[in-house]
Amino acid sequence: MLPQNCILLFCLFFISLSSFVGATGVLNLTLPHQHPDPESVAQEVKRKVNASISKRRQLLATPVISAQSQCLTGNPIDDCWRCDPNWASNRQHLADCAIGFGKAAMGGKGGQFYVITDSSDHDTVNPTPGTLRHAVIQDEPLWIVFKYNMVIKLKHELIVNSYKTIDGRGANVQITGNGCITLQYVSNVIIHNVHVYNCMPSGNTNIRSSPTHIGWRGKSDGDGISIFGSRNIWIDHCALSHCTDGLVDAIMGSTAITISNNYFSHHDEVMLLGHDDKYLPDSGMQVTIAFNRFGEGLVQRMPRCRRGYMHVVNNDFFEWKMYAIGGSASPTINSEGNRYTAPADPSAKEVTKREDTNEGEWSDWNWRSDGDIMVNGAFFVPSGEGLSMQYAKASSVEPKSATLIDQLTMNAGVLGGPRDNSISMSSGGGTTSTGASGGSSGGGSRGDGDYFGMIFAGGAAVKETSPPNAVFLSFLIILILYVTTNHGDADGGGLND
Q: Where is the chain membrane-spanning (predicted)?
């Protein structure tokens, strides 16, 4: 008979092992909505760019229709909707024009239009109908537009609910003040054609996030746009500058993001992608950064990446003072068809920077440069697959578009007015008129089983429970040992007799 203490020790060991295996299974190091093949997404972006460029060249070569094709730039996002003279009558077509990892961002497509008629932001708990704060907290999908030019000076963070499009086309819309735009545990948000600037930290107050939920918010960082635990996000044709922290930060397991056609200027730490080197879920972060202009007065983080896969394609890096692209914790950096213009400072010519890591650690990181244009002594230090150049490339989709970077980024920033925030911006006020919202009811249902609920400071995150198989298997092994031991005693007694 096996000694009882051996059985007990064996069971305890098995329970511990089962719990460890179970915990490892629960800790999913990837995100449920990340793309299983990020390289295919990068290839699709290049194909769309090349297709738009080819179409532009073909039409311009035909004198009869060349006058009708001047709207074509080769930028597949803009060419998707800007060539339609009646785009204002079909605003929601914009949602069909995204590319890259944020391609599936629906925003408020299929929902009713909500017209912003009041630029005030007096009450974060009971926002006035007709204000932007009242629009973005609604539960149903909404396509939000603006009746007038307006400056919206926020009292505190603007907490945006899922399935919303903030569409500033046709008006000069400026968002500034305290907290600025926060996307926390939401999905399917499009932010298009707005100025975001002079965002300051705020908080320690109650803020409404939906018609039925009010929560306490701690102090915010002062980001222009903060993306926290969210997915299917598209930020397009915005101008961002002069914020306290980042212009765009995406952290805590955010993924499926496209940041395109924006104008970044006058800021230190431009863009942070990834929460912390040890935060493993950010390994599933996937971000497309395309057709942006990184303009005057920028210092660093364009972006600064932790883990994840970042496709940086056809951007114009006009200025940096320290570096353009940085990272840590082995992110994949796929840089294609960009123009990097180095500063005059001879110590800041390198595009890349590995943060707080020695070469022995980062030599295997997959950082690659393909078809980039280096100006004024700029140089990109590749590593991993980028150094060996052994990753798969299809000749039909090589990034030959870098030579057209002026054309592809010519409209980066806000359309229909000053592209950037270098002009003298208003500090508040704007057009104010009270009025009811234009259609804040109806809409559609969320069809993808959205389980990201809004969580405020002090709220509990989604609870992950350990799998029941550890306890079940422990009982099973005890039962087997018990039966085996008793059976062995019976047989042994018979033989001895």
A: none
